[in-house]
Specification:
heterodimer, A: about 270 residues, mainly alpha, 2 domains, two-stranded antiparallel sheet, 4 strands, globular, B: about 450 residues, alpha+beta, nine-stranded mixed sheet, four-stranded mixed sheet, 22 strands, about 25% strand
């Protein structure tokens, strides 16, 4: 094989959408969760959820094409796939229609809540908050054992490293701020350090860090913006966790701060993708 | 009196015993035995009743040592008034344990040649044991930064509500007042003091105890309001030797309860197991619990039962009555019995006539300081599917394979079934499969053997 073609392969590997790694990583977690970690979700719910997300995406793309026939885009299957995976991993329900409905809400939110043509809620985050408030659904933050978390962490970190630098930075800043704040509280109250390690090895925190707050479409562009955003999300979460005893604090915090990011972009339109 | 008291924070236990004469119920199997709290020596029992932010915690005290040495220390969110503290009935713990215990049910295979052949049920009995601990005193408290917020005598208990500025002062004060604290107590108390929590400290008032004429300690109950849905377990690990078992019965209005900071999973259930287990269901369940806990690296809380308090199917014991539920803190039940019937219910308790707005979740956790470093936090989910630990015995038909053509088929099928039952048992308990086969009589040369192809050829 010539050097040129090796370079070409390298090039195309690098070009390979970072989301492919995300999809693989989430798919692994989902299979493991369904088969051996006693998740409440059944395969029927999973199939309906994927189908609903893909269908909703197709429907809105067709509508868009009719409205703007010049801007034809290829069918974007990755985004609804990742969104459905996140929904299935986080949201629990014993009612069969909750996941497909949440998937519909998630994908629709991308087309309804837009500023200057860009959606500003992470679709899974949006649907989860709506589901927690209105549907018979809940999140089980304690459902993750510790061993699978290590594998998950390795996979997610791998995916993050191979992906765009900005996404990685969002995850890294958030994890740093959030875990440092938890550490400060543990030290301040003079708890044992084992409580801190127990708190941070929670699967919801990792999924949130790698697949939600780091969403390249809805996170800030500039380093300053990223730091401010992740810091605010961490602070608001701490408030919800320790003053409101809200187990789903991360979801609510990101949901409430997403419009702030959008407004920031609106008033600082000259900032470009990092 | 210079009595040395020990502080062994809130651990609780009970064992129960029951003799059931269940009514036969063909569809769901006959209830034959239960695995209740008495199997687990060091098990504490807590009934946690909660709706919105209103909470009632009942702690079973089956302490069996010298009453002078009994003491209990629990962090509480506020200074409790006298009327927020109550002494409950021990029998209610036995009832709720019996009602929610994992159960064994049995079926008898019908005669494949002709008619069904129903047999009678049998019952199993149990009894119980216990333990608990804790301790404290008052006087010259303020020089140690300890403030006695309130002091009551409730039933056979002397109760203090303390606040402290720092844990060393609290520890010193308790020690000077004759309490022997376990090592590490000060360190364990500190985070609670830093969170401005108060301490509920109970010891036995010997005079009141002898007046009551009771030979045991009754459960203590406290009622309070708090946004935090949690159960403090850290203090209980200070002087624990080895893992401890805790049974928590959570009474709420709606769905299943789970922990938000630990993994909560359902105990494997509804499996067919070899019939010989009937003779020692207790050992089976104990071994299964240990094995399953090990499999999850001891970092898991098992759900053993989730059911609407109005009924059961099959019943290990009758559900608690409205009056009994009220005594355990269910304050939201109206006086008019709700006569709504839940879908699919097959056995109604006539006294109740159907579902009541109370769901009981029975959680069983084996914990150590290492595997459960943080107190338990809970949330109520929207999962309102019933669940019970139920293990099924199927007795083979006792006829002969030559009785009719169907009988041969039956025995061939039976063999596979027994093999599966043995495998189920091995996977649940980690017992040796060969031993199981041996005990089930599967290796017995007299048992039916599938004919070989040549035997079938010239039959």
């Amino acid at each position: 094989m010539s050097t040129a073609s090796i370079r070409e392969i390298n090039q195309s590997l690098r070009m390979l959408d970072a989301r492919v790694f995300q999809i693989l990583s989430l798919f692994f977690l989902l299979c493991a969760g369904l088969s051996s970690w006693n998740f409440v979700i059944e395969w029927k719910q999973a199939v309906l959820c994927f189908a609903s997300a893909l269908f909703t995406q197709a429907m809105f793309q067709v509508i868009e094409f009719h409205r703007f026939p010049d801007g034809k885009k290829p069918f974007n299957w990755m985004s609804p796939w990742i969104t459905s995976s996140s929904l299935l991993l986080l949201l629990k329900s014993t009612t069969i229609w909750v996941h497909p409905f949440a998937a519909f809400v998630a994908i629709s939110s991308k087309f309804f809540f837009r500023i200057k043509g860009k959606h500003f809620f992470n679709p899974a985050n949006f649907a989860i908050v709506i589901s927690l408030m209105l549907l018979p659904a809940w999140i089980s933050p304690g459902q993750w054992g510790r061993t699978p978390l290590l594998i998950f962490f390795a996979l997610s970190a791998g995916a993050a490293v191979t992906s765009r630098a900005r996404t990685t930075r969002v995850s890294a800043y958030f994890l740093t701020f959030f875990s440092l704040m938890l550490l400060c509280r543990v030290l301040y109250l003079e708890y044992e350090l084992s409580i801190w390690t127990h708190q941070i090895s929670n699967g919801v925190i990792l999924i949130f860090a790698f697949f939600m707050i780091s969403d390249p479409k809805t996170s800030p562009y500039s380093t300053f913006g990223i730091i401010l955003h992740t810091l605010l999300v961490s602070i608001l979460s701490m408030y919800f966790i320790f003053f409101k005893y809200e187990p789903n604090a991360l979801m609510y915090s990101l949901f409430m701060l997403s419009p702030v990011v959008a407004l920031f972009h609106y008033f600082k339109p000259n900032i470009k993708h990092a | 009196m210079n009595t040395t008291k020990k502080i062994m924070p809130c651990l609780i236990f009970v064992l129960m015993a029951f003799i059931q004469t269940p009514h036969a119920h063909a569809f769901c199997g006959f209830y034959v035995a239960k695995a209740d709290a008495k199997l687990f020596n060091k098990a504490s029992q807590v009934v946690y009743t909660r709706h919105e932010n209103k909470t009632v915690i009942s702690m079973s005290n089956d302490y069996e040592g010298d009453l002078k040495e009994f003491a209990m220390v629990i962090p509480v969110p506020s200074v409790l008034q006298r009327s927020q503290i109550n002494v409950g009935e021990r029998a209610l713990f036995e009832k709720i344990d019996a009602y929610s215990a994992p159960r064994l049910v049995e079926y008898f295979d019908p005669d494949p040649c002709y008619q069904p052949n129903y047999l009678e049920t049998q019952s199993a009995s149990r009894r119980q044991t216990v333990m608990a601990k804790g301790a404290v005193d008052d006087r010259q408290a303020s020089s140690f930064g300890v403030h006695i917020e309130a002091q009551y005598t409730v039933g056979e208990y002397d109760i203090l509500i303390l606040s402290a500025k720092e844990s060393d002062g609290l520890e010193t004060w308790l020690k000077q007042n004759g309490y022997k604290l376990p090592k590490g107590a000060s360190k364990a108390l500190r985070p609670y003091i830093n969170q401005k929590l108060k301490f509920f400290v109970a010891k036995v008032n010997l005079e009141e105890q002898s007046k009551s004429g009771l030979s045991f300690l009754r459960p203590l109950q406290i009622a309070f309001e708090s946004e935090k849905f949690m159960l403090p377990i850290r203090l209980g690990t200070i002087n624990a030797k080895g893992p401890q078992d805790l049974l928590i019965y959570i009474l709420t209005r709606n769905g299943l309860l789970e922990s938000t900071n630990y993994r909560t999973i359902k105990m494997p259930s509804n499996m067919d197991i070899p019939v010989y287990v009937k003779d020692d269901f207790g050992t089976f369940y104990k071994d299964m619990f240990s094995y399953q806990t090990q499999k999850e690296n001891q970092r898991v809380i098992f759900t053993e039962y989730v059911w609407n308090m109005g009924w059961c199917d099959p019943c290990a014991a009758d559900p608690l009555s409205r009056e009994e539920l009220r005594k355990l803190g269910v304050f939201w039940l109206s006086d008019n019995p709700n006569t709504r019937t839940p879908n699919g219910s097959r056995k109604m308790i006539p006294r109740f006539g159907g579902a009541v707005p109370v769901t009981v979740t029975r959680l069983h956790v084996r914990y150590t300081k290492e595997t459960f470093p943080e107190d338990l936090f809970f949330q109520e989910t929207q999962d309102n599917q019933n669940f019970q630990g139920r293990y099924v015995l199927r007795y083979p038909w006792k006829g002969s394979a030559n009785q009719c053509p169907q009988a041969a088929q039956y025995f061939s099928h039976l063999k596979n079934r027994q093999e599966n039952e043995a495998k189920n048992l091995a996977s649940l308990t980690g017992w040796d499969l060969h031993d199981i086969r041996e005990k089930s009589g599967m290796n017995d040369p007299n048992t039916y053997k599938e004919p070989t192809w040549w035997e079938r050829l010239w039959q």
